[in-house]
Amino acid sequence: MRVLVSGGSGMLGTALRLALVERGAYVLQLVRGRPETEGQIAWDPTVAEPHRLEGCEAAIHLSGANVAAHRWTAAYKKEIASSRVDSTRALAKVLAGLREPPRTLLVASAVGIYGDRGNAVLDEDSAAGEGFLADVCKQWEAAAQLAEDAGIRVVHLRFGVVLGKGPGALEKMLPVFRMGLGGKLGSGRQWMSWVSLEDVVRATLFALDRPELAGAVNVTATRPVTNAEFTGVLARQLHRPAVMTAPAFALRLALGEMADEALLSSARAVPKKLVEAGFVFKHETVEGALATALR
Description:
Blueprint: E1 2-6, H1 11-22, E2 26-31, E3 40-42, E4 58-61, H2 74-96, E5 104-110, E6 121-122, H3 132-142, H4 145-149, E7 153-159, E8 161-163, H5 169-178, E9 183-185, E10 191-192, E11 194-196, H6 197-209, E12 215-219, E13 225-226, H7 227-238, E14 244-246, H8 248-255, H9 257-263, E15 268-269, H10 272-276, H11 286-293
Parallel strand pairs: 1-2, 1-4, 2-3, 4-5, 5-7, 6-15, 7-12, 8-11, 9-14
Antiparallel strand pairs: 10-13
């Protein structure tokens, strides 16, 4: 099986490419800059050579600028949106124009599409929410329409917070928690939809193999936790106290809009479609996922 992967250099992309190779797939990777291996293709949709992509049975698009890299200036918000929406639209257009388009396109999305929803349990039938991230996610998913119009099965993988080794959310938390300075954000009552790195990879491959799965698919563990619960579990795993609290007003002063949308927002998403399709999570508790990630 020939699989095209874009945005495959991060924590998730690297793990996914390795898993694809282990199952016998030939992986083509779209990269920015000069290719370093035979399986890499320099990607610029304005000068792309479509014939290089012919013969791929599936494509997986994971591109997107880091939402929490720094404060959301107007310029960075534009980059967050463009890196997701424009790149997805460009890839969908190229794939739709191939003589033999891939059968499947898996596109990264996020549970941020639901916005700040308090204690409401959110599955794939739940309406999209409001706010910058929700709007970006809505445009992100709509950008793949050209591929769908061409008969390609499109799956929008709505990822929660991925817990694993490598450059991700957990890596940014660990220094503070290891110093004993970790603690809840704001009230700590906001829900966090998380998923282990291993289960993200397994769920992505599962969606690749299941032609009945299409549209939005929540890739989150079955048991979301509140920020206070997550904080307590992480501190216990590290044998450190977690008595500090980052007040909401301080987070807003330091981070502006990003504080409300990325840190204080509550999304209690559950993987209804995956469970109904027969997917079994390896890590159903945040304790188990963190224990694995911290080994």
